[in-house]
Amino acid sequence: MESYVLITSDVTPATSADSVANSLAKRHRPGETLIQGFLFLCGGISILTTIGIVYELGKEALLFFRTDSVTLTEFFTSTKWQPAIGNFGIWPLVTATLMTSSIAMLVALPLGLATAVYLSEYASEKVRSILKPILEVLAGIPTVVYGYFALTFMTPLLRGIFGDGTVQIFNTASAGIVVGILIIPLVSSMSEDALHAVPRSLREAASGLGATKLETALKVVVPAALSGIAAAFVVAISRAVGETMIVAIAAGAGPKFTLNPFESAETMTGHIVRISGGDLSYDSVDYNSIFVIGLLLFFMTLILNMLSRRIVARFQEVYE
Amino acid sequence: MSLYPEGDALLDQIGGRRRRGAIWRMLFLSATIIAILVLIALLYNVVNSAFGLTAVENKVDPAALAVDGVPLEALSKEQLTTILAAHISTGLGRRLEREQLFFETSTVFEDPALFNDLCASVEPPAACALPARSQEDIYQLVLERVVEPNVVQTWSLADSILHRAAVLTQAQQEFPDAEISFRSWLTLAFITTPQSSEPELAGVRTAILGSLWVIAITITFSFPVGVGAAIYLEEYAQENQLNHLIQTNINNLAGVPSIVYGMLGLAIFVRVLEGFTSGATLGLIDDSTTANGRTILSAGLTLGLLILPIIIINAQEAIRAVPSSLKQASLGLGATKWQTIWHHVLPNALPGILTGAILSVSRAIGETAPLVVVGASTFITVDPSGPFSKFTVLPIQIYQWTSRPQAEFRNIAAAAILVLLVLLLTLNATAVYLRNKYSTKMV
Fold first, then answer.
1. Cross-chain CB nearest to B257 (options A40, A214, A269)
2. Buried b (16+ CB within 10 A) or exposed e, B175-184
3. Is the pLDDT assigned to residue A67 strictly greater than 80?
């Protein structure tokens, strides 16, 4: 008689599949965890960078205000910056920065926006493929080269037009114009992106109602993209405020409280470069003072950049 | 009376609108052309200064130094040394001889016995270990120390070509002794000789090597970290406050002015981590350079932090562009998350990542302001020997030469700008080449 042996097992087929799944899901993979940890650290370095900037700049700024030589009120109200005799009023540096940035924006806004409108609304695909790379080349040139250009080309040009008597060798006008040229590609490429995002149907509707190309561009497309363009302008201002080498080379050395664009003046960034390029002893008032300027610069550009992102975020809500 | 114009009035109105359209179109086009004109003006301005006529006055006419009709450069080593000995002081001669001997077996300025003693002493002069100077070396010495060419005036390339006759007559009146010749400030010698206080002898060798060293450190630091952060943010990060903060923070860091990074580098790398960045902790401090943390390493890490956000943002875009079907297929076949990323996501995103990285590196090469703050050396003639050396880079060199009042320094600044632009152009061309090569392969 044949006997059957019943093989029994604790594990039924169904539960066996579960346990396989369980064992796979819960298997400890130290390698994977390690890699994920390392990648997280890489991301964390950016946070550390920000903390480092705020902490180091803030620490030196505190040391600066703790010395007897300056009070917070004097710093924000005085119009004299003469570290040698203990005058630390930020205004001469701020006005010079505002001057170069305003001149830069006067150049970059109309030219950048007009370039963007041309590239986005008028230019054929072929023309675009030639013009875009040229603008990119302009954006890729190091700022020190622009500084050389400002000093050896723009300044003599201005002096030729307005006369050697009115225009000093170092002046904020020349530096500002060249900073403007530097940020044209930034304004034009960001504005062009905004113009591109305007739905095609709007253009077609305008054309269908009999609008000319210009009327479509200026009365429909540009207003529709306005917040994107505004964001581009704000980013451009922040770029102009933080620009260093052009103003360090062409705007002049020595803080001066003036609103004449043809006189020399020193911007915040220019001052930092000049002071730190010389023989700088640590823990001196001079050393601390450039960190205060740096902190101010950091917050100015941070606020502008956040503002720009806020504008863009609102713009996306409207159009999607 | 109709609300809208009719007949001729309508045609007039349409004609007017079309004219306005055409005028504005021209305005838009000219704004675009201005940008191109500026680029041309910029290049013209640089080239114009980098080449041109120069008036050079020699302290001693080389023709007067010729012996028996043989020109100076063809004279033998012995004859050249005799000329040198006749024109320079014994003190200077001794110094030159201690740097490097003139002849293998005999000495010219030093007393032979004394010199042998010197070589046997605890600190022997450099000459004891070096071979003797060649004829070419001594010829250069004669030029530098005896002939002493001095550039008295330079003219731009445009003047040199268009008003050549006027320039030549003016030069003959003002500098009758000077030799007028066409000079390219950008020469092979300019690229291979170190910095000098004489513009006509100065070169960018130290600056080029410095730039390469700094960039090597920058890439080593920021490429792996940047790509790592991008992978984390795109593949691992969950939607939570912390990761949102990291992303916002990276976007904001990309807009921080470069000079602020310079100050961060000065505070952290140069001062707080001085022991590490000067090499003291590792016992690698270089005796000849007292850099105190103002080293290639500090500069490279500072620039690394500067371009990190740009690398991360570009890499994120490249990783996001990889089709999710690829990832799902890999995960479906049982690959782990990291295996999927390493074998499928990264290879496909690589062209995009590389292009972004090269573009940010070309930005780092052109950066000047943060390195001034970190403490680039103003005058340095020794090649950098490693991460713990003092440094200067090409843009710093251009900045310093541009800031000098003398015209000749503008000329060499222009030549250095050409070197920098060629370097950047090469890098960008590589980026385009890589992008094209790999994107055809992958798709």
1. A269
2. eeebebeebe
3. no
Show the domain range for A139. Answer: 77-319
The CATH class given to the B205-442 domain equals: mainly alpha
CB distance from A249 to chain B under 8 Å? yes
Handedness of CA B73, B74, B76, B78 (dihedral sign): negative
Model confidence at A315, pLDDT cuts 50, 70, 90, reads: low
Q: Which residues contact B52 (CB under 8 A, 6 or more apart)?
A: B154, B155, B156, B157, B159, B160, B182, B183, B411
Give the separation between CA B106 and CA A89, rounded to whole angstroms: 67
Tokens of B400: 């310093």
CB B45 to CB A152 under 8 A? yes
| Tokens of residue B80, six digits | 């050249």
pLDDT of residue A239: 93
Q: How confident is the model at residue A16 (pLDDT cuts 50, 70, 90)?
A: low
Q: What are the start-end ranges of the H helices in B197-257?
A: 205-231, 241-253
Nearest to A147 among B36, B252, B402 (CB): B402
The stretches of B254-406 forming alpha helices (DSSP H) are 258-265, 274-277, 296-320, 324-332, 337-340, 346-366, 369-374, 394-403
Number of domains in chain A: 1
A248 pLDDT band, cuts 50/70/90, is: very high
Output helix, strand, coil percentages for chain A, rounded to the nearest 5.
Answer: 75, 0, 25
Answer yes or no: do B256 and A134 touch at CB < 8 A: no
* ipTM tops the 0.95 cut: no
Q: Is residue A62 part of a domain?
A: no
